[in-house]
Amino acid sequence: MKKAVGVFAFFLLLLGCSQETHRFEGTGDFWDVRFQAEVTGEDRQTSSLQIRYIGDGEAPSTVDYYLDTPAGESSRTGALLEDGAFQYSGGGCSGCAVNEADDDIVFTIDWDGESEQIELQNEDQ
Length: 125
Description:
This protein has 1 helix and 8 strands; from the N terminus they run αββββββββ. By secondary structure, the protein is mainly β.
């Protein structure tokens, strides 16, 4: 009986620790973008974003961006770039909609009077 309870508890632990990681990426004429969502529960996730300037010439010092996903939107004004790149991690929510592997995600970035829109695709599909 103890063994059966132990096995049952182990499976409950595994179910409670299930996690999915969805990696989305896209490249435009000026920017390379990667977005990652780690879904840690039915209504919980953490996310990270990486932006890298790949255009000709000098990278801008700041950008404004807008990330539109079926699970929600995220934006930032005046994001500071370091060596042509910006990285954000630690975003998350609980009790929210979460990203799915087949989500359509659109990333829009504005800088120095320019704008680019990039569709991000799941790199695991």
